[in-house]
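Following up on my earlier thread - several people asked me to post the actual chain instead of describing it. Fair enough. Here it is, all 428 residues.
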Amino acid sequence: MKKRKKEVVTVVGLGYVGLPLAVLAAERGYRVFGVARNKRNINMLNRGVNTLKDDPSLDKAIAKKLIKATTSYEPIRKSDIVIVCVPTPIDEFYNPDLTPVISASKGIVRNLKKGQLVIIESTINPGVCEEVVLPILESTGKKVGKDFELAHCPERIDPGNVKWNVRNIPRCVGSVTKKGAVRAAKFYRSILSAEVRVMKSIKEAEATKIIENTFRDINIAYVNELAKSFDVLGIDVYDVIQGAATKPFAFMPHYPSVGVGGHCIAVDPYYLIERARKAGFDHKFLKLAREINNSMPSYTVEKLQSALNELGLPIKGTKIGILGLSYKANVGDMRESPSRKVIALLKDLGAKIEVFDPYFPEFSTTKSLQVCLQNSQAIILATNHREFLNLNPKELKKHKVKVVIDGKNAWNKEAIQNQGIVYKGIGR
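Reply from S.P.:
Thanks for posting it. Predicted structure:
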């Protein structure tokens, strides 16, 4: 560990974004405090226990107790840099909810000291820093550029990715003032082994993360619609995408699935859609992409109904096993997970549901994959955890599973069909 620097950093929000960042800053020699609401997690961190089970790379640093965690905002009073890493969710009507960011800003302003650099890492739509956060920080009479600096560095993290992490992913920073941008860039360059690009304005920095995830959402919507089309045309969309991907330029493969989940792709487009609407612009393309991707859990259930009909089975009363609750493989994160929508739809149709996810034993109805298969006439692969990918098709036949809906197109179609099981993928 490097010799500690004089500057003190407080990270507000100790989840998937904030905790790795806090640990990294501490490893780079900063004195670091962490602020969070969950008292149980606070106590675990202060005992040296990692609260992110999906990121064991943090275990050693947290065991050394390099950061001091608390529910109080008071450490900000002695901090030189304050970084906000709280969630930015949407409500049931897909409206952006800035409550966590507003709450964090109010906690900061009560403890704001002269010369402080405040950085927002939470994903927000263009304009939030200047229109929402800044008025709160200036509400006591302090002025940006004179008494404090306000910058934005949109978080970039990919849970479960062994190659790209908080240490080596390039970042973009922007600030209300040029001085703030220079200072923010200097901080991130001191902790990252990656490029730090300074944007011309804080609004540009806010826009970078939104368009990154909206780009993915649009491309996923494209292949999800192709999957529906190719189901009608009798074409295997998975094979076609792999064929198209042999082109070494101007094509980036995306794949259809049971639905889009997670806190980024399924959420961020709504922030841009709503902000643009308030400014008088209608994002028709983005709204259509969201509509298509939101339809995939329902489409998956339709695929199940079709498969059951081939066997003369009704969906009502049939035992359906759901494999996976996480929105993404090999992580314990259910935010915006399509599995939850699939389960709700199946319950409305009267199906008997069994659920298993090794990352969420507390929400699973069975203790093991084998028991889930044993209790199911049909299964839906909703998350491609490695535990599920290793499943031998003969096991499905052994447990008398009659129908497989491969919501991730992750299994061998022919191998399952060779066991006399009805297989349906998304676009396969």
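The radius of gyration is 24 Å. That should answer part of your original question.
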